[in-house]
Design goal:
The chain is an all-beta fold. The chain is built from one helix and 14 strands, in the order E-E-E-E-E-E-H-E-E-E-E-E-E-E-E. The strands form five sheets. It has a five-stranded mixed beta sheet with strand order 1-8-7-3-4. It has a three-stranded antiparallel beta sheet with strand order 2-6-5, with no helix packed on it. A two-stranded antiparallel ribbon has the order 9-10.
Length: 166
């Protein structure tokens, strides 16, 4: 199973390193692939390659992103001898100085049904601005619809935000 929610879309700045993750539990073999001409090819790593693996192959770093080379579809595939799981992601490369547009949500939280009293995790991924240019979201808020009115979850009992990563 995947231990970290993975988005379907991500951005990378040209000429900078970009790391994408595929965190799993219970799988001892994890491989990365990139799609070229509608066919998946294993990603080659090493001193002469522009890719580097870390964290037991769960992190793939693209070194010095080149638009025509690194933009495209990536897939991580994990197996344990009994089952195989995989996830695909579209990586879009861009000149980060061009990032003057408004923040954009890349993946929305999914509705979930859980037993009363249990914890629940909602994930929302997005592009929240360009901190180098001083154009970014300084605050991120979560709201719950309560009888047709949106209320900040920090004002509700038993609701808290435990982690926001940027």
């Amino acid at each position: 199973m995947f231990t970290k929610e993975i988005g379907d879309l991500d951005f990378a700045c040209n000429n900078e390193d970009k790391t994408i993750y595929c965190c799993t539990s219970g799988y001892d073999n994890l491989s990365w692939y990139k799609k070229y001409n509608k066919t998946w090819h294993p990603i080659q790593t090493g001193k002469t390659q522009s890719y580097k693996l870390g964290e037991n192959n769960q992190a793939l770093t693209v070194q010095s992103v080149i638009p025509d080379v690194h933009q495209g579809e990536y897939k991580c595939q994990a197996s344990n001898g009994i089952s195989t799981i995989s996830h695909q992601l579209q990586l879009i490369t861009t000149e980060c100085s061009d990032w003057y547009f408004a923040p954009a949500i890349l993946s929305y939280p999914q509705s979930q049904q859980i037993e009363k009293g249990r914890n629940v995790l909602f994930v929302c991924e997005g592009y929240y601005g360009n901190s180098a240019e001083g154009i970014f979201m300084k605050e991120i808020n979560w709201y719950k619809n309560v009888n047709g009115k949106y209320i900040n979850v920090q004002q509700l009992p038993n609701c808290n935000i435990t982690k926001i990563t940027k």
